[in-house]
From TrEMBL:
Region ranges (Disordered): 60-83
One Pfam family per UniProt: RNase_Zc3h12a
Single GO term (MF): mRNA binding
Alphabetized InterPro entries for the sequence: Rege-1_UBA-like, RNase_Zc3h12_NYN, ZC3H12/N4BP1_RNase_Reg, Znf_CCCH
Segments forming domain C3H1-type: 251-276
Names of the cofactor(s): Mg(2+)
Zinc fingers classed as C3H1-type: ranges: 251-276
CDD domains: PIN_Zc3h12-like (cd18729)
UniProt keywords, alphabetically: Endonuclease, Hydrolase, Magnesium, Metal-binding, Nuclease, Zinc, Zinc-finger
This protein's GO CC annotations: cytoplasmic ribonucleoprotein granule; nucleus
Name this protein carries in UniProt: ZC12D ribonuclease
Homology family: Belongs to the ZC3H12 family.
Length: 309
């Protein structure tokens, strides 16, 4: 009797020592309900419940080993590039500033307007390229407005100065357009400029295709940066698809028939009729082929039946 009761409560998950103590106190002839009540009163719990209530200990992972937890990341790791669905933006700072200043003044406020427009759309990678000599005090032949904006954008790691230096009193300037096209090509991004970069297109055929397909032109309307809704023309992608890594294709729409219900072409009409929900969009040649296939298939089946014994 003692062994049977001991095995019964051990199968329930209670400790062997706790069951023996209760049986010694209540006697070997105690009922199972009484033994269970005494175990509960003593605070004894099954091993399954104890494992649930106790917090799981922290696991130490050796340095350099792979962890299966999805939340673990390397220090300093930024997954914004993987989750970001918008293309990187590379802005031709000189072109934008001169356009905003009506080609007379290098207006840094125009660069700020362009950067703010892409920020509001959610672009995280924005780079502006400006020649280094624009940091110098303005001269009469090259006036600059709101020059402090360049310093603010440089502190935000958005503006990049292309190198330049003076040799024997003459300024040696590196070609900033080459920086713009090269960075945009490597990042698979978009170039914001009204320049066509024809000299760079002739240098590299890959750059030629990239400039033709990824050049975003713009206009300034009352201090408002406005790129076109159709950057590659009427039959090209929309602005949202142009700036997105994963463009969303619109659903095909049938052009409604200009004759409406008065159309006499029937199923041969290539236009859409809302009053015909199950209209077959087939050409005349396709309809004739479909009609011819049916009797031919029936004739072949009859011949096979006749040949079979």
């Amino acid at each position: 009797v003692h062994q049977s009761k001991l095995d019964f409560f051990c199968k329930l998950g209670y400790g062997k020592q706790d069951v023996c103590n209760v049986l010694e106190n209540l006697g070997q002839e105690a009922l199972e309900d009484d033994v269970l009540k005494e175990l509960i009163r003593m605070g004894s719990k099954p091993q399954a419940l104890e494992s649930q209530t106790q917090p799981s200990p922290l696991k130490l992972v050796a340095r350099g080993s792979c962890s299966t937890s999805s939340g673990s990341k390397w220090l300093g790791e930024d997954d914004s590039d993987s989750s970001d669905h918008l293309r990187p933006i590379v802005i031709d700072g000189s072109n934008v500033a001169m356009s905003h200043g009506n080609k007379e003044v290098f207006s840094c406020w125009g660069i700020q307007l362009a950067v703010d427009w892409f920020r509001e759309r959610g672009h995280t990678y924005i780079k502006v390229f400006v020649p280094l000599w624009r940091r110098e005090p303005p001269r009469q032949d090259s006036p600059i407005a709101d020059q402090h904006i360049l310093e603010e954008l440089e502190k935000q790691s958005i503006l990049v100065y292309t190198p330049s230096r003076k040799v024997k009193g003459k300024r040696v300037v590196c070609y900033d357009d080459r920086y713009i096209v090269k960075v945009a090509y490597e990042k698979d991004g978009v170039i914001v400029s009204n320049d066509h970069y024809r000299d760079l297109q002739n240098e590299n055929p890959e750059w030629k295709w990239f400039i033709e397909q990824r050049l975003l032109m713009y206009s300034f309307v009352s201090n408002r940066f406005m790129p076109p809704d159709d950057p590659l023309g009427r039959h090209g992608p929309t602005l949202n698809n142009f700036l997105s890594k994963k463009p969303v294709l619109p659903e095909p729409k049938w052009q409604p028939c200009p004759y409406g219900k008065k159309c006499t072409y029937g199923n041969k009409c290539k236009f859409y009729h809302p009053e015909r929900p199950h209209q077959a969009q087939l050409s005349v040649a396709d309809e004739l082929r479909a009609k011819i296939k049916v009797p031919l298939s029936l004739g072949k089946e009859e011949e096979q039946r006749n040949r079979s014994p």
